[in-house]
């Protein structure tokens, strides 16, 4: 009889332990699933495509069809074999992969632009390391046939000017089909891709080739924007392009003294805003900046490189948007730009990704709660309910 009772007690104890263990597993799994998967949907679901102005004579269906939906991001900095720790790689790359794939699924853009510094060690990578980095990039940033991906070269992809070689440039161009001075036209909208590392102005081989292509493209665009009754013999044999003012896409920002005038929660920290920028390193030189403005007279410039947000006006009328880094490694609050663009207008909206600090806070809170539950279960910590009940019992006894 005693043996049967003892067995029953042991079975009940075992069941309780298994039940508690199952609850802990469910709790931990729920926290992991939320922080590593669901949180990206919760945050990015709140982002909306901005409205863009259109002519009153156009129907809603025609207007929607003529708007190009573009996502712009920058500075992913996929870690390489030299400086990249395996856990750092795992954490940052998972964050970017989930952010990118979630954004594609929820927002369904027509085109995605990445404004350079795709890799962190492209300027140093051996052929084998480069192939491995490219494979990881293609896994993380895979995209459906309904979306186009356009990648711009940055200084970490091909090196700063003094590190840039024809081999590195060709290696990058082969993978991403990128050339400086390349024109992409979608829905009548002209995008000009610029290798800003090659805008050194010292006559290097890559620089000469790049500038020659930009000058030729500038001539085409200028001829295309002239009125039909405007006679210009130099434009007679030139291929006509859509008469839409171009949008420049590049890695380096155009020249500005510093980020002192930049504002917003994702702009540079206050202690960094007044640090002067170095030409040809932090920003393009004044000469190169003036060339690009003069050649193209763009209606918008999009750049990266600084890892912080900034909006400036050039010549009092041409806006430039510096896009912050897409990686938690570079900032706590990464983001990307959503653009609704037509041949004559555009509207931009920022979409923030989950803050790393908030994810960390959730994990810390869940960890603390987990410890409390375990201690309470093994009776090393008295649950608050029983503690209050004992106090009431003692009070009544007195």
| Alpha-beta classification | alpha/beta
Please give the domain count: 2
Tell me the number of helical segments per DSSP (H or I, 4 or more residues long).
Answer: 11
Q: What is the fourth-level CATH superfamily of the largest domain? A: Metallo-dependent phosphatases
Distance between the termini: 41 Å
Q: Order of strands across the biggest sheet? A: 4-5-6-7-9-8
Taking the sheet with the most strands, its summary is: 6 strands, mixed
Briefly summarize what is shown.
GO terms for molecular function: metal ion binding; phosphoric diester hydrolase activity. The chain has helices spanning 2-44, 60-66, 86-107, 127-140, 155-158, 166-176, 205-224, 270-273, 286-296, 356-377, 384-397, and strands at 68-73, 111-114, 148-151, 182-186, 189-193, 247-249, 300-303, 310-314, 318-322, 335-341, 346-352.
For this entry, give a set of tags:
398 residues; alpha/beta; Purple Acid Phosphatase, chain A, domain 2; 2 domains; six-stranded mixed sheet; 11 strands; 14% strand
Question: Can you characterise this structure?
Answer:
With 398 residues, the protein is an alpha/beta fold. The protein folds into two domains: 11-46 and 355-383; 57-352, Metallo-dependent phosphatases (Purple Acid Phosphatase, chain A, domain 2, 4-Layer Sandwich), CATH 3.60.21. The chain contains eleven helices and eleven strands. The protein has helices at residues 2-44, 60-66, 86-107, 127-140, 155-158, 166-176, 205-224, 270-273, 286-296, 356-377, 384-397; strands at residues 68-73, 111-114, 148-151, 182-186, 189-193, 247-249, 300-303, 310-314, 318-322, 335-341, 346-352. The strands form two sheets. A six-stranded mixed β-sheet has the order 4-5-6-7-9-8, covered by helices on one side. A five-stranded mixed β-sheet has the order 3-2-1-10-11, with no helix packed on it. Helix 1 (2-44) packs across helix 3 and helix 1 (2-44) runs antiparallel to helix 10.
